[in-house]
Design a protein that fits this description.
This protein has about 300 residues and is mostly helical. The chain has one domain: Na+/H+ antiporter like fold (Up-down Bundle), CATH 1.20.1530. Helix 1 crosses helix 8, helix 2 packs across helix 8 and helix 5 crosses helix 7. The mean pLDDT is about 85. It comes from Plastoroseomonas hellenica. Keywords: Cell membrane, Membrane, Transmembrane, Transmembrane helix, Transport.
């Protein structure tokens, strides 16, 4: 198991490191990276979700149980964070960044490792995870921004942010195609598959390019708190929910994997748009991406050993 996890992580680490090197060396124009992030967030990653859900073979997978475990653990950690808000020595905008750093996850890293661990089954399990967590997390984050962000949202603004989220729309579209049995037409399907596949290497390069270690050092307390919630509290809540629902095998490993992912670079974009603390969010994202290289194998190995027969 250890060797498999490390081998699945190796290409992820190499692509993130390459992206960081390209940015530091100014190999590409500085304006390339924001446009690449926009392309990935609004087109490539949604296409990956749409294609993965529409074409996944879900008949032998514990779809309902896996989704229930992920949603329940996410809601539990979100409630604990909100209850602990009064004890945090940060303002409302800072809390939105801690919240995102605790519950939001990096889709690119999760899908890549799941595919490396379990092949086609891993891709299908990753699609279920995204369908369950992406809408849940985005709704929760928009609500937290509406309550604590500096740019307060009206009820209409909240609904608009949720309804216009490309990842939510892609997941809903993929589930609709899967549920109705329509699938994807044979003509566009290869093009959609190629676009979705392109999201993984480009997304990891963008993750590396966005790393800013200087910002992480400026907020040690909030960064440490968000990272503890992400790498300890969230996986533990997921494991407890999995034990309660009887989730086992590759589905359990994939659930733990996705809930131990570092926060996504899209969290920084949302922080800028909705009145959060964007510099703090960048620091949390940078620190968690580095910590994840050690945290992900430890979480998977420790928790899966705990439940091994």
């Amino acid at each position: 198991m250890t060797g498999t996890v490390l081998l699945a992580l190796l290409p992820v680490i190499l692509l993130i490191a390459l992206g960081h090197w390209l940015r530091r060396r100014a190999f590409l124009a500085g304006g390339f990276w924001p446009q690449a992030e926009r392309l990935g967030y609004f087109l490539l990653l949604p296409t990956l979700f749409l294609h993965g859900l529409a074409t996944a073979h879900l008949q032998s997978l514990p779809v309902g149980v896996l989704a229930a475990v992920l949603i329940l653990s996410t809601l539990t950690v979100s409630a604990l964070l909100t209850a602990a808000r009064r004890f945090m020595p940060i303002d409302g905008a800072g809390f939105t960044s801690v919240f995102q750093g605790s519950v939001r996850f990096n889709n690119y890293v999760g899908i890549t490792i799941a595919a490396g661990l379990f092949g086609a089954q891993g891709v299908a399990l990753a699609a279920i995870c995204n369908a369950a967590i992406v809408p849940t997390v985005n709704v929760l984050c928009v609500l937290v921004f509406a309550r604590y962000g500096s740019a307060r949202l009206s009820a209409r603004g909240i609904l608009r942010q949720i309804a216009a989220n490309p990842l939510v729309l892609a997941c809903l579209g993929g589930m609709l195609l899967q549920g109705t049995g329509l699938g994807l037409p044979p003509g566009p399907e290869p093009a959609l598959r190629a676009l979705g596949a392109a999201s993984l290497p480009l997304g990891l390069l963008c993750v590396g390019a966005a790393l800013d270690f200087g910002t992480a050092r400026r907020w040690v307390g909030p960064v440490a708190g968000a990272s503890a919630a992400k790498f300890l509290l969230m996986p533990a809540a997921t494991l407890l929910a999995a034990l309660a629902f009887g989730l086992r095998g590759p589905a359990l490993v994939t659930a733990l994997l996705f809930q131990a992912m570092p926060t996504a670079s899209s969290a920084y974009i949302m922080a800028r748009q909705l009145g959060g603390d964007a510099p703090l969010m960048a620091g949390i994202a940078a620190a968690q991406t580095v910590l994840a290289m050690a945290a992900i194998p430890l979480v998977l190995l420790t928790l899966t050993v705990m439940v091994a027969p």
